Amino acid sequence: MRVGGKIINSGGSMMGVVFLIILGYSIKEISALRDSSCPRICQPNAYGDPVCGSDGIIYSNICEMKKKTCGKGVSLSSDPGLCQRSSGSRCDHKCGSEKDPVCGTDGRTYLNRCMLQVEICRLGIALSHLGPCNNISAHRENCPVDCRQAPLDGPICGSDGNVYKSTCQMKLLTCGQGVVKTNKKYCQTTRHCRESCWRNARPACGSDGKIYTNVCKMKSKNCGKHVFEVPMAYCVAQERTTSSSSCPMDCEDEVEKPTCGSDGYIYKSECELKMLNCGNIRRVAKVDFEKCKNRLNKCLNLKCSEDLDPVCGTDAKTYQNQCLLSRATCFKGIQFAHLGNCTELKEEAPCPGYCDELLDEEPVCGSDGNVYRSSCHLKKETCGQLVIEVPPQHCRTTALCNEDCSEDRNFVCGSDNKIYRNECEMKRDNCGKHVFVVPMKRCISGFLFKGCQKICPTYYDPVCGTDNMTYSNTCFLEIENCRSRSLVTMKNMGTCSEPVNEIPKNYLY
Question: Per the database record, which ranges form the Kazal-like domain (predicted)?
Fold first, then answer.
């Protein structure tokens, strides 16, 4: 540990803590020094959504928070309201300039998620959808009739969560829904498209029967396709080499006898050890079980529920839920392959060449993250990719299809120009469609208001009038201005008791 320019090896001992206290460090500062795992570089697009730190500041992601607060003892805020203006937050932020546009419910396009989070803090608005706002009414979209001559600029990740072959196809298939192009990281089969892969040589077998240098290469080379890792035995069998017998195809008939591998993992049997390490350049052998005792104790402490939401592991085994897969990851390094039950690696049934458009079928969520018009369309459009139907909550436009929405009256205006009781009902009633929240004025533009009466948004962005009264936002001030026949105007931003300078808004338009 470096303290005051000197390196002190406290070794985690009580003696080291006492020594630091003698030097005048508080327990809180010592804890910060201990807990500071400081990342030096945060890769763009790799660390998730903006976060609120325990210091009340908004950071673009958790990596940036750790990097910028290294050694200061700042952690994720346990109070979700800490970064809200209504709770007294100053809405300070440390956002990057990465261009990753998102649309707010105020109808404005923000530079990135972090910039939007600042306005969420200030005004209490919300995320409408990923990608830029399409301020042209969805009903008036210019939709292509045919895409045969259009450039193949895909794969494209749409704001509805689906992947399309081109921009033209996206517009053709979602005509009238206001779907726009978004960053590839937001769709399941495109999030690894531009990933920089390390040159680690751990061969991986893809569900397409090909062997790749590693899993990262497999995903980046199959941008827009549903290709996942399976046991190496499958690829070896496909190649029909003389060494195929050295890779067990499965270990179903083997007697379960926990085996410790030289890689530190615990396998159900020696057969499973060979099957999961087949093709690995670094040879893994059976060793004395005593060397795996620590891992055994650690993994057994992971308690899981009996919830049924199946996922498939890279060992081609179906796990009842994500937690049970995480336990398998702990024991033997199994990774997530795809949502839903594991499928046979060879599709036996022929792919449908035609789907009856007249059948009124429910939209389905595929294990590739895309939503399809029906089960038939899923099989037809993903022929050969081993995509299966999974529970609707795993896809963006079907997530709330079966939701039991509350009866709270938080009225919202949908992009279909209809008013809904709340956002949940809007999403549920438009199962499979890309319908999002837009400013209420779009839905009420058809109404005529007489005199000074009008409907104002409920967000809190106080302004002080020249009558020394504080108004919730400029809309309410405008009503008073109308009533007083222009006698009351804006004096300053903020409340009358605490005037503030206008905070620069972080939107593109």
Answer: 32-84, 85-135, 286-344, 345-397, 398-445, 446-498
Q: Which has the closest alpha carbon to 220: 245, 194, 249?
A: 194
The helix (H) or strand (E) run that includes residue 129 is strand 127-130
Tokens encoding 161: 């969560």
Residue 14 has pLDDT above 50, yes or no: no
Per the model's pLDDT, the better-predicted residue between 116 and 14 turns out to be 116
Compute the average pLDDT of residues 281-309: 90
Token pair of 178 as six digits: 């206001």
Look up residue 417 and give its DSSP letter: S
Between β-strands 336-339 and 163-164, what pairing exists: parallel, antiparallel or unpaired?
Answer: unpaired
Paired tokens of 451: 């005199």
Spatial separation of the C-alpha atoms in residues 495 and 499, rounded to whole Å: 6
DSSP conformation class of 318:
E
- A 10 A CB-CB count for 346 gives 9
Alpha carbons 39 and 35: distance in angstroms, whole number: 12
Distances (CA, A) of 112 to 67, 218, 362, 475: 19, 29, 34, 27
pLDDT at 447: 61
User: Comparing C-alpha atoms, which of 241, 217, 240 is closest to residue 229?
Assistant: 217
387 has pLDDT over 50 = yes
Q: What is the pLDDT of residues 414-463, one digit of tens each?
A: 999 899 999 999 999 999 999 999 998 888 775 656 667 777 777 778 88
What confidence score (pLDDT) does residue 325 get?
Answer: 95
Q: Token pair 């995903």 is at which residue?
A: 219
Helix (H, G, I), strand (E, B) or coil at 161: coil
Q: Please report which helix (H) or strand (E) contains residue 34, including its range.
A: helix 27-35
Phi, psi of 421 (to 5 degrees): -65, -35
360 or 499, higher pLDDT: 499
Is there a contact between 289 and 258 (Cβ–Cβ < 8 Å)? yes
Q: Which amino acid is at 4?
A: G
Per-residue tokens: 456? 């104002």
Under 8 Å CB-to-CB from 386, ≥6 apart: which residues?
Answer: 207, 226, 343, 345, 347
For residue 457, cis peptide bond before it (omega within 30 degrees of 0) = no
Q: Is 487 helix (H, G, I), strand (E, B) or coil?
A: coil
Q: Rounded CA gap, 382 and 405, in Å?
A: 33
User: pTM for this structure?
Assistant: 0.78
Q: How do the residues of the chain divide into helix, strand and coil, expressed in percent and rounded to 5?
A: 25, 15, 60
Termini Cα distance of the chain: 48
Question: How crowded is residue 48: how many other Cβ atoms within 10 Å of its Cβ?
Answer: 12
Contacts of 61 (CB under 8 A, 6+ apart): 42, 47, 48, 49, 50, 51, 114
Q: How far apart are CA 401 and CA 431, in angstroms?
A: 5
Residue of higher predicted confidence among 83 and 28: 83
CA distance 243 to 248: 11
- Domains of the chain listed by start with CATH number: 48-84 (no CATH), 412-445 (no CATH), 450-508 (3.30.60.30)
Whether pLDDT at 101 is above 90: yes
